[in-house]
Amino acid sequence: MQERLQKILSGRGICSRRKAEEYIERGLVKVNGEIASIGQKADPDTDHIEVDGKVIEERKELLYYLINKPVGIVTTNASRSDQKTVRDILPKELQGAIFPVGRLDKDTSGLLLLTNDGVLAYRLTHPKFDHEKEYEVTVSHPITDGQILKLEQGITISGAKTKPASVRRMGPATFRIALTEGRNRQIRRMCQKVGAPVDQLRRVRIVTLEDRVLPEGALRELDADEVVALKASVCIE
User: Fold this and answer.
1) What contacts 229, CB < 8 A, 6 or more positions away?
2) What are phi and psi of 51, to 5 degrees?
3) Which architecture characterizes domain 64-127+211-233 according to CATH?
4) 64-69 and 219-221: which strand pairing?
5) Are 132 and 167 contacting, i.e. CB atoms less than 8 angstroms apart?
6) What is the pLDDT of residue 80?
7) What is the DSSP letter of 215?
8) Where are the domains of the chain?
9) 132-206 fold
10) CA 11 to CA 32: how far, in whole Å?
């Protein structure tokens, strides 16, 4: 069945529809050896479609999973002999089929999205999109309102100030912080700067995704409504 090229490329997880239009306009998309044009349709089952010289793969099933990563697990899709990785705690049938979106450092626990949807992964991780991720933080001693205000306004790390953050106190030494950026060990470094070293750090939300009952180390597939809401939040049709 013929479909617009933008829809075909998006459905294969190659790029968004808008990006597909850009590729077509730049002459990077070919159908049966001929440079494609905007609005052109093709049949992915019978036509030979290339993007920047690479033949597109057959339609793949897009998978979306959420894991509650424990402390001590390294966020990587590669196998390592020296440390236990996220891949190691996945069921065998999913190892190599899905990959982590973004990172949680070894000492941080909480929610981590795994998928094979390259378009969604790009939208969630590229700095220009400013999507929120929320963390629950426990520091070594009671944190003051002044320290919280500094975290909200931004902290200079390695010569660059962090973006404003939303901070909500949960207890004397516990708070939640929502960031729209993800520098290396950012929350730990911010807290250290204001004199409140982190004892425990746990991610509790990824844009629209939350799960308060998923056990530590457990994995579950996202339901259809969660996938739709997550894609809508990053402007994917």
Assistant:
1) 208
2) -125, 115
3) 2-Layer Sandwich (3.30)
4) antiparallel
5) no
6) 64
7) P
8) 3-55, 64-127+211-233, 132-206
9) Alpha-Beta Plaits (3.30.70)
10) 19
* Residue 160: strand, helix, or coil: strand
**Residue whose tokens read 């459905």:** 11
Catalytic residue among 45, 52, 105, 107: 105
Structure tokens at 109: 């626990």
Q: Is the pTM of this model over 0.85?
A: no
- Between the two ends of the chain, the Cα-to-Cα distance in Å is 20
Judge if 3-55 and 64-127+211-233 fold alike in CATH terms: no
Known catalytic residue: 105? yes
**Residue type at 10?**
S
Give per-residue pLDDT as tens, 156-206: 999 999 999 999 999 999 999 999 998 889 999 999 999 999 999 999 999
Q: Give the CATH number of domain 3-55.
A: 3.10.290.10
Residue with tokens 């999507």: 131
3-class secondary-structure state, position 88: helix
